[in-house]
Amino acid sequence: MAELEEFRASVRSWLEENAPKGLMGKIGDVEGGFWGGRKPVYPYPESKAWFEMMLERGWTVPHWPKEYGGGGLNKDEAKILNEEIARLKLPLPLTGFGITMIGPTLLQYGTEEQKKKFLPEIVRGEIRWCQGYSEPNAGSDLANIQTRAMVDGDDFIVNGQKVWTSYGNLADWIFMLVRTQTEGKKQVGITFLLADMTTPGVDVRPIKLISGNSPFCEVFFEDVRVSRANVLGTAGGGWEVAKALLGHERTMIAGMGSRVRTGKAENPMEAAAKKYVGLKDGKIVDPIIRDRLAQAQMDESCFALTVQRNSDNMKAGHNPGPESSIFKIYGTELNQRRNELMLSILGPECLGWEGEGFDKDELALCRAWLRSRGNTIEGGTSEIQLNIIAKRVLRLPD
User: Fold this and answer.
1) Every domain range in the chain assigned CATH 1.10.540
2) Do 149 and 179 form a contact (C-beta atoms < 8 A)?
3) Beta-strand relationship, 173-179 and 129-132
4) Closest to 181 measured CA to CA, from 223, 152, 147, 139
5) What is the DSSP letter of 63?
6) DSSP string covering 271-298, please?
7) Tens digit of pLDDT for each residue in 241-261?
């Protein structure tokens, strides 16, 4: 314990002295994350310096092994670092699917050559990833994918379509499921493949959502040549790898429901209630809103602690299992309830799309509320998660 307290004191001192003051208070800003990639976009003027100083210490992915560019911290040290970053309300220096999804899967299934190639590039922010799972006829029934990969010497020739590919228009590489065999069970003929998005034959088309944004894309593959060395796991054995990655994805998506506030930062829902509903004798005027606020804050705190325990286990080398479906369904529904509560608090002021009469935050809340409608669909619908929980967690009969 003394060593950990000494580590905490060292981290706190270093962050207070070196972390950019202009980034303090930016924690939780959905537009404030730095994703890296071949064409990096720094959300704030200080983001580049923050990323570079953390990279120098291996702290862009502090819990990964040092041989792959990580910080080599154990789970307790990594937790302390995250707590100290949150205490100063700083954004993470680097984010993205490379860290939360494909990186952990590479650590579990990748060859040593694949780990040495891709993991340091992720740590250094040189490569941005997207996910190629869903297809027009393979959403909830993921094993029904039809994108084909035919062997041609040392390569695969890939033809097909993916849909709902998050940030596909910004990604450098894609990890995707392709069909390399048509005989037997659908799951048996699936291969997990890594492909460069600049390869000839890849066509990306953004999809506009009801929120007005286009985070999702369609991706078309026409005679795209991908090296067979880019198979993760074994050819035909991609279903196992795919399920492992889904555990990481669902845990990541669940994180939107666990917003940990540090210090004396005011809950944004409570602040909104004070502004739009009003106070009387130091209390929110509407008793129903008061009750919903209290319930939401208790739900957030309980869920955040549960997610933290799971995160600690993952950093200790335990990969997420079917229990990640519990996190996914609860976290996404909690986020939807939070947005519905904000709608109830703001009333008509939360229904603005553009133009005069609404401030910037009100317009952002409207779009966040609309965007949250997709939370319980993406990454596997809530109905699919309930089936997984029933069968693989509770072991209920069919």
Assistant:
1) 2-95
2) yes
3) parallel
4) 147
5) T
6) HHHHHHT-EETTEES-HHHHHHHHHHHH
7) 998 998 887 777 666 555 544
Give the pairing of strands 216-227 and 155-162: antiparallel
- State in words which class domain 2-95 has: mainly alpha
Fold that domain 129-238 belongs to in CATH: Butyryl-CoA Dehydrogenase, subunit A; domain 2 (2.40.110)
Render 76-97 in DSSP notation, one character per residue. Answer: HHHHHHHHHHHHTTPPPS--SH
Burial of 322 (0-12, 13-18, 19+ CB in 10 A): middle
3-state secondary structure of 381: coil
Q: What single letter denotes the amino acid at residue 303?
A: F
Query: Residue 318: CB partners within 8 Å, gap ≥ 6?
Result: none
Residues 226 and 167: beta-carbon distance below 8 Å: no
Ranges of CATH 1.20.140.10 domains, the chain: 264-393
Angle between helices 75-87 and 2-18 (to 10 degrees): 40
Residues with active-site annotation: 249
- Residue 195 main-chain phi, psi, to 5 deg: -140, 145
Specify the CATH number of the domain 264-393: 1.20.140.10
Taking the CB of residue 141, how many other CB atoms lie within 10 A of it?
A: 11
| CA 86 to chain centroid | 18
What would the pLDDT profile of 147-199 be if each residue is shown by its tens digit? 999 999 999 999 999 999 999 999 999 999 999 998 888 889 999 999 999 99
